[in-house]
Amino acid sequence: MTEQERYRKAWRDRNIRFAVFLGGFVGFPFVFSLTLGWFVSANYPLFFRKNMHLLIDLYALFYFLFVVVLVTWWYRFRCPRCGEIFLWKSWTSLMKWPTACLHCRLPRNAIPYDH
Ligand SMILES: [Zn+2]
């Protein structure tokens, strides 16, 4: 595998991680709304009919955990040049939207030249 292929593979992995995170973050409430609509209209269990708030609480808890898992997976992407975590240097990294590696300044989606 050439250096360019290795970088392309790494950036594809990074873009997939971000797309999955964004899709899950935005898409999950829609999927939940649709399933809840079906659940309410169908013969859903009597327990939830009497305690609908529990269903909402469970959903909120599950959604929170789901998003934490997706964000962690996205953040664990490592820079193809220096091998450090691309988006993380310290807690202040969370306040930024970096377009380059926070360690070696490699721009996102950059491919090295073939000399
Ligand atoms: Zn780097």
Key descriptive features of the protein:
mainly alpha; binds zinc ion; single chain; elongated; 115 residues
How would you portray this structure in words?
With 115 residues, this protein is an all-alpha fold. The chain has one domain (3-95). The protein is 59% helix and 0% strand. It has 3 helices and no strands. Helix 1 (3-41) runs antiparallel to helix 3 (52-75). It starts with a helix and ends in a 40-residue tail after the last helix. The model has no long low-confidence stretch (mean pLDDT 87). Residues 79, 81-82, 84, 101, 103-104, 106 line the site of zinc ion.
Summarize the SSE layout with pairings.
Blueprint: H1 3-41, H2 46-50, H3 52-75
Helix pairs in contact: 1-3
Bound small molecules, deduplicated:
zinc ion
Category from helices, strands and their pairing: mainly alpha
- Count of individual domains: 1
Order of helices and strands: HHH
Distance between the termini: 16 Å
Q: Nearest-angstrom radius of gyration?
A: 20 Å
Q: Sheet bearing the most strands, described?
A: none
Gross morphology: elongated
Q: In terms of per-residue confidence, which ranges show pLDDT below 50 for 5 or more consecutive residues?
A: none
